[in-house]
Amino acid sequence: MNYYAHSNTEDPSRWQPLEDHLEQVAELAAQFARPFGGEEWARLAGLWHDLGKYHPDFQRKLKGESIRVVHSEAGGHLVSLKEWRGMDVIFSWLIMGHHAGLADYGAGDAGGKALEPKMRHPEKSNDVLSNVPAIILDQIPPVKPPMFANADRYPDQAFFVRMLYSCLVDADFLDTEAFMDASRKAARPNNPASMEELLSCFDAHMARFDGAEGTVNQCRAQVLAQCRAAAEQAGAFSLTVPTGGGKTLASLAFALRHAVKHQKRRIIYVIPYTSIIEQTAEVFRSIPGFEDAVLEHHSNLVFDDDQEIAEKRARLAMENWDAPIVVTTNVQFFESLYANRSSRCRKLHNIANSVVIFDEAQCLPPAFLRPCVFAIRELARHYGVTPVLCTATQPVLTETKSFDFEFTEGFKQVTEIIDKPNALSQQLARVQVEVLNELNPVDLAVLADQLKAECSSLLCIVNRKADARALAERLPGENTIHLSTNLCAAHRFEVLSEIRQRLKCGEHLLVISTSLVEAGVDLDFPVVYRALAGLDSIAQAAGRCNREGKLKMGRTVVFMPGKQPDYVKPAASLALNYLKPDRLNRIFLPETFRAYFKQYFFMKGTQALDQKGIRELLPNETAAIRFQTAAERFRLIDSDWQLPVIMPFREASELVDQLLTRKWEAKAICRKLQRYTVNISKRVVDQLVDQDYARPVEGFEGMVFLHTRQLYDERFGFIPPDSIESFNSEELVI
User: Fold this and answer.
1) Residue 148 and residue 22 share a domain
2) What values do phi and psi take at 660, rounded to 5?
3) pLDDT score, position 220
4) Which of 159-168, 315-324, 549-558, 629-638 has the lowest mean pLDDT?
5) Can you say whether residue 400 is alpha, beta or left, with left for phi > 0 and alpha for psi between -120 and 50 degrees?
6) Would you say residue 621 lies in a domain?
7) What is the pLDDT of residue 232?
8) Does the residue 527 lie in any domain?
9) Domain of 524?
10) What is the distance between the alpha carbons of residues 678 and 492, in angstroms, rounded to a whole number?
């Protein structure tokens, strides 16, 4: 009897032979796992992943019979039958989960989805396995990969399983695609630029700036030179550069030179906010030769209608990050590393043997800091990754037992790229920090008068969306611009463009914003006001002040707001210690941030740095690992309490109409609509629907459209009517 893996025609002679599929997936998976020494494990998982398709019922299903066949268990049962103790659970996870996802081992609260019940009674696969060719059955167990030989730095088993899983599922997807959809395979990016080619293009581009005059440009040249020199070394790195010091291009210089020297396969930029991603990707693509080398992966990415081929290639590359340079978010990077579904895990093996730049590293979420840093360290120790923690406000991510606080997930050693960070910080000092009213509370009316009295354009950053709107309403409308996440992303993009253009023309502007403008957004004001918050937030706000050093000294004024959100209070109270008159001139030095973050982490405590208990769910003990539960809990942004609502801004209404009439294009239309959404509490959404201000989009569960244009203001974005019970969503920073 002939056995087949896939059918794409009625003619069985043109179907994919099962043995061919198994061998091809095995070789591709082994190739993917080679950078971290797991090729023998991945090869065997690939060879055995579809043994259940040797069941006659599966072959009947390929011929069109309506029959249910579970084909993902036989390979796992085979390992148990061979009595390869210690390997049976690992291979069962990989093989039995290659469609369903990595399960919890024990039943627990996973019920019938757990792995252990599926492993019981392996003898029930005997009949299927009797049809498998001996050359596939008679395999010897894989040797332990080299990483397991180092007892002092024993790798994490859950991490290893997930990386192997990535190799298997990506190989399975790609081989199946090659047989079933040749056009899709042909559309995938091929012949990408090499790191050597990209380095040559980059060096030629940067040569144009050699000899640029001015203190800021001279400091940027120093940073660039030190990054190039440090690229010769190996290890984990930090890049501590004040805002405006050119760290984006300097870090790329390090990454390219390091990748060539140490034969790294790709460069991955991990960035906290989509606004910075778009800006960073645009900077990289502006370098001649980089146009097709940069992949953006984030939720707001939208292609123009005439970019059909480019869109298809980019969408395919996003599935597994098969590109020389990837620019993505903290959410996408870390949630994928802790995911359990095949679609999210496909890309993981392509992180191995890469340079990974963590831009704005201070934005790693404290509630998940331990599992995030553990993942970075594991990638560095066992998967050939060179991590670079890149920020103006460097947090403490090394192992420490000081302050009665153990951060055991941290690095033993991190090499700082900049020779003298304190000296560089003083060289690039372009801002004088002041405090308003001795940091006694200031109400919005008094603050508005203070802002109107300023002669220069200014940016004022507050902690609450309610404060941003209320303050902007007290200021002259023709000169005042409001920014918050009550504006949809497309609206914010327009407003930021308007701000840059009007500043360039020398107009007098008062910009009132939440903290969404802080990390990495390229704005330059002579004066910045900042509501009291954590020291890192104050420093990021100051980074929007005199950014290009055109003034002798800019001014950043810190004030105490009348109302302070609860989540800000701990960090703000700690920052008060550094805002005393005798400490203001040293407030932004790297040594200050080291002291601040040590105190901050100690104040929060070990448990608070892993609020969801992710590390406990993934112990280095096979039978206690709970992949599914960890994946469900690992959500950097808790959005369960809110829903994205489509705002009636620009083309959004037309897109919603298209969604209802052109459902065959639903996927592309939904991607475009992402830029027109605002997250609103579910309770408020229910009220909007009940009062007919908004309506669910028919046929698209969970999608809601605010069809009443009066509730979306050109200045303030979404404004609920008085009849809607207010919700404290303004207490969120951005």
Assistant:
1) yes
2) -80, -25
3) 87
4) 315-324
5) beta
6) no
7) 95
8) yes
9) 430-587
10) 11
